[in-house]
């Protein structure tokens, strides 16, 4: 993925503002998100595979909230779209969006983790 694409996925300036300009807090938020993201994404995937609109709505909403601590960029917007599709009972739309969402969330995780300062302990 190119640097420009990474900038679209994650805006460090937006993230630090969301962390009240506290770099240590931002690092902690990134670590917590990176640890939870794959499990949260898997929960959305199960709900999508089951075609369960209520579970899609709940799991997409949870992941959207976690994403919002760092960004309102593409991964957040896709979570919002999936959640809204489920709210409208449009499971087909959620199913259609999921592969792009999954790819975007995974790229987002990789990108944000690359912004963590290296630990020298």
Question: How are the elements arranged and paired?
Answer:
Elements (H helix, E strand, L loop, with lengths): L2 H7 L2 H7 L4 H28 L2 H16 L5 H14 L3 H23 L8
CATH class: Mainly Alpha
Count the DSSP helices. Answer: 6
N- to C-terminal distance: 30 Å
CATH topology descriptor: Four Helix Bundle (Hemerythrin (Met), subunit A)
Helix content: over 70%
Low-confidence stretches: none
* CATH architecture label name: Up-down Bundle
Q: How is the biggest beta sheet arranged? A: none
Instruction: Report mean pLDDT, rounded to a whole number.
Output: 91
Tell me the name of the CATH homologous superfamily.
HPT domain
In quaternary terms, these chains amount to single chain
The number of distinct structural domains comes to: 1
What this model shows, in words?
With 121 residues, this protein is an all-alpha fold. The protein has a single domain (3-113), classed as Up-down Bundle (Four Helix Bundle (Hemerythrin (Met), subunit A)), CATH 1.20.120. The protein contains six helices and no strands. It has helices spanning 3-9, 12-18, 23-50, 53-68, 74-87, 91-113. Helix 3 packs antiparallel against helix 4 and helix 4 (53-68) runs antiparallel to helix 5 (74-87). The longest helix has 28 residues, at 23-50. The mean pLDDT is 91.
Keywords:
Four Helix Bundle (Hemerythrin (Met), subunit A); mainly alpha; 0% strand; elongated; 121 residues; 79% helix
Q: Quick gist of this model?
A:
With 121 residues, this protein is an all-alpha fold. The chain has helices at 3-9, 12-18, 23-50, 53-68, 74-87, 91-113. It starts with a helix and ends in an 8-residue tail after the last helix.
